[in-house]
Amino acid sequence: MSKLVKIIFLVSLVAIIASCGKKQGQALLASNAAQKVYVAPGEKDEVYAFMSGGFNGQIGVYGIPSARLFKIIPVFSLFQENSYGSDEETKDMLLTSKGYVTWDDSHHPELSLTNGNHDGRWLFINGNNTPRIARIDLTTFETKEIIEIPNTAGNHASPFLTENTEYAMSATRFSIPIPQKDIAIEEMGKGKFNGSISMIKIDPKDGKMSVELQMLAPAFSYDLSRCGKGPSHDWCFFTTYNTEQAFQMIEVGASKNDKDYVMAFNWVKAKACKDAGKAKDFSGVYYHNYLPENAPAVAEKMSGVKLLDPKDCPGVAYFLPTPKSPHGSDVDPSGEYIAAGGKLASVIAVHSYSKLVKAIEDKANFSGEVMGIPIMKYESTLAGEVKKPCLGPLHTEFDNNGFAYTSCFVSSEVVKWDVKSREVVQHMPAFYSIGHLSVVGGDNKKPYGKYLVALNKITKDRYLPVGMELAQSAQLWDISGSTAELLSDFPTVGEPHYAQMIPAAMLKDKTKKIFPLEENKHPYGIKSEKDARIERNGNQVHIYMTSIRSHFKPDKVEVKKGDMLHFHVTNLEQDYDVPHGFAINGSTLPNLLIMPGQTKTMKWEAKEVGVYPFYCTDFCSALHQEMQQYIRVSP
Ligand SMILES: [Cu+2]
């Protein structure tokens, strides 16, 4: 063999051996990973994942590690599977000052906190488009309350909770004239437009929300937030972008400054200033809607807020310069470090809460002010930077071993780094274009750790193609070992904008199984077939109907053309997992899905003479098909 041939032979041999090794290694890794996500028949998942649906306005409930989709909780969008937003009980949940808004762009699920840790009571989520915050009860997995946020546009930095769920914070994505009026768009940066920070009070007993206070803020875009814990309990930290106040070609105009800001907002001080009479009465119309147990929703139109000007409350806020167009502003479990990921930054800035406190004491650390809010010097609050972590760091969560995980949109990866030393310890590739990420309890004082989910925007070649619109995706990582390991990826419903995860043990035994019939206080609910009846009031016909395997009562409904029928159907079952459905053949309204002991109402106008079947839509028994009867409409 010539020397050249020998070399080629050796090189290819080495390559063959290496590739064999790689294949074997990958196969081993794959079977090991498959075992870690396999949940055997009859076994249960370890963790609940609540994933926002983004532009579908809902929440998907997944099991982790299996990644099985269990349920879709409708929040801001109509859900015809169970008539959410269409039946007479839930349609007023979607009332706003702008009318009946049956969609929203939901972004950030937030599990309620006690002492900085998830407590499994409620789940909050923002409507970014028509500014709203919803509260889901985690015993029923139902949306129980929606509050609109007045004097705001684009409720993106929302609903971030304080350490004991005292408040949900909400800030404007889009600055606008407050109150709305006709102003030249060029005036945006001249103090004519504003942002606003809203403090939504949460009643510790029942979770009921109310607008405590709003604060005017400079006309920047406010992006994300996290509130402090432990030593930083009194504060919330909001990222801002477009501090340039560009009003056209914002893509370019908002990317000029080397640094934008994290706003440190002292909510305890803001409340004290309000209590001291420093907030003024201000306009603002908004709806507050809630769903009492097994009764129609109550929609209240509210008017007026308390508005604080930061000039009237010195010390309420500070701006911390932060590179460059920051997205996430995330507080570590100790409450000391605030990691800020800049979409266009080459470092992750980590601010120090204790340095902030010291820097505030010495005014020499101020480099200017805007609307009475001091701007700090960058180094004065900086603990340090994670150098060259990735391209486009966005959002950070933490584990229980002192590590942070930051998603990086541009380089499509997660970087794992040490919180104290700020050294990068691992690059974890993501397919493709990751936005937020979620660690179980990753914003808690005591994260559960173990699993990380990367929430990706694009899938391209990951799954079978299904036409032009492909599923978005999530990727599951095991982060319990010293090196994080990719376990699986799976498609999601809607956009998995952000997710929060909680150990299943904290929720599964608290789940409600039935509505007790004896406690049914629905104004049109009945407790037995004996009470089933039809009552007429002019052309309004109320049908007090029961359903039980496998029939409805009353059997026949006979009315006149032009009558308005109100079917109030009470499911008499008191047995877990036995809902009945109710649909009228050819009706324009969706199906009712009625839980055991629950009453739901469908309105149906008798427009045409004829005989119309109605039937149960949820397979309930061997004689489910026989669960069908008639409405007769006479001239
Ligand atoms: Cu977002």
Can you give a write-up of this model?
Helices cover 10% and strands 44% of the residues. The protein is mainly beta and 635 residues long. The strands form 10 sheets. It has a 10-stranded mixed β-sheet, with helices on one face. Strands 35, 36, 37, 39 and 42 form a 5-stranded mixed β-sheet that branches. A hairpin with a 6-residue loop joins strand 32 and strand 33 (485-492). It starts with a helix and ends with a strand. Residues 1-25 have low confidence and may be disordered. The site of copper (II) ion has 3 residues, from loops. Copper (II) ion binds at residues 107, 156, 497.
Number of helices: 6
| Morphology | globular
Poorly predicted ranges? 1-25
Distance between the termini: 103 Å
Layout of helices and strands:
Layout: H1 3-37, E1 47-52, E2 58-64, E3 68-74, E4 95-96, E5 99-100, E6 110-114, E7 117-127, E8 132-137, E9 142-148, E10 157-161, E11 167-171, H2 188-192, E12 195-202, E13 209-217, E14 221-227, E15 235-241, H3 250-253, E16 259-266, H4 267-275, E17 280-290, E18 298-308, E19 317-323, E20 326-331, E21 337-342, E22 347-352, H5 353-361, E23 366-370, E24 373-376, H6 378-381, E25 382-387, E26 393-398, E27 403-408, E28 413-418, E29 424-429, E30 434-439, E31 451-456, E32 472-478, E33 485-492, E34 499-503, E35 533-537, E36 540-548, E37 551-553, E38 556-560, E39 564-571, E40 580-584, E41 592-594, E42 599-605, E43 610-615, E44 628-634
Parallel strand pairs: 13-18, 36-39, 38-44
Antiparallel strand pairs: 1-2, 1-34, 2-3, 4-5, 6-7, 7-8, 8-9, 9-17, 10-11, 11-12, 12-13, 14-15, 15-16, 16-19, 17-18, 20-21, 21-22, 22-25, 23-24, 26-27, 27-28, 28-29, 30-31, 31-32, 32-33, 35-36, 36-37, 39-42, 40-41, 40-43, 43-44
The structure holds copper (II) ion.
